[in-house]
Structures are given as C-alpha cells and as structure tokens.
Specification:
binds ligand CA2; 5 strands; 146 residues
Length: 146
C-alpha cells in the first residue's frame, strides 16, 4: 500500500516558530518517523511539502494517475480557502485523511471552515504532530486487514 502525506504552506517552518501551537519538531523529523512507522507495517510512505497551491493540486492528480492508495493532507491555510484542492480531492478515489496539528475549531473563526473536510474520509486534529504517526499506524492496520 502506498501513502502520500501532503503538507501545505508554511509547514516547512515547523520547529522554528510558534512551538506553543505546533511543537518543536521539524517537518523532516515528522517525515522520518512516518516513513519508519509506515515501513514497519508494510506501507510505502511519501512525504511532501509545498507553499504553492497548484503544486499541491498536481500532487493530488499524480496520486490519481499512479494509483496511490491513501492521501494524508495537511493543507495548512489552504484548508480554509482552496476550492482547487477540494476539487482535486473529489477526483481522487483513494482513502483521504485530513490532518491538522492544532484544532482549527478552537482557534480564529476563519479557521472553522474547511474545504478539505467534505472531500475527506476522516479528519484528525488537535493531537499535535503525533497525529501524523497515528494516521500512518491506522492506515497500516487498515491495509493489513484487507
Ligand atoms: O493545525 C494545523 O495543522 C494547520 O493546518 C496549520 C496551518 C493553519 O493555517 C491551519 O489553520 C491549521 C498553518 C501552518 C503554519 O505552520 C507554521 C509552523 C511553524 C511556524 C509558523 C507556521
């Protein structure tokens, strides 16, 4: 089973600012843990980050083309704005998990709307960076059940 984890804008800054919200680990630390955890349960995990909406749309289209089994997406602030990402996710038939490090619902009102949620099978939010590994673990269990 192949999984691609897509991270949106500013998530490359993890570990450098706002540790009270996002923790002190870097995105590279998280990627390493996800890849390792995935390998343990037979998942091949790809991990990407972009500050560009169109590039994220292209990666979702790539997942459609190459038959990626599951997408995990933290679209960052594009979560709350991007119809283009919403449309691309709608075109993807694999399993889709929306992920947030913080809980957008206990933050500013502009974070309460998600264009990703209606196109996702599952949502995980507010568990910090641990959420990434938890989702990989869940996908591993799912893959090994089938
Ligand atoms: O909680 C999340 O994972 C978010 O997707 C993070 C986005 C935010 O716009 C969403 O509402 C919730 C922001 C990512 C910015 O990440 C930074 C990390 C460190 C320093 C500054 C920004």
């Amino acid at each position: 089973m192949n999984v691609v984890v897509i991270n949106g804008p500013n998530l490359n800054l993890l570990g450098t600012r706002e540790p009270e919200i996002y923790g002190s680990d870097t995105l590279a630390d998280i990627a390493g843990r996800c890849i390792k955890r995935g390998a343990k349960c037979g998942l091949q995990v790809g991990f990407k980050q972009s500050n560009h909406e169109g590039e994220i749309v292209t990666w979702i289209q790539d997942a459609i083309e190459d038959g990626t089994n599951a997408l995990v997406i933290n679209a960052g602030a594009y979560t709350h704005t991007s119809i283009a990402i919403h449309d691309a996710l709608r075109a993807y038939n694999g399993y889709t998990v929306e992920l947030h490090i913080s809980n957008p619902h206990n933050r500013e009102a502009f974070r309460h709307v998600s264009f990703v949620s209606p196109a996702a099978d599952a949502v995980i939010a507010g568990l910090g960076i641990k959420g990434y590994e938890l989702v990989i673990e869940m996908l591993g269990e799912k893959a090994n059940k089938n």
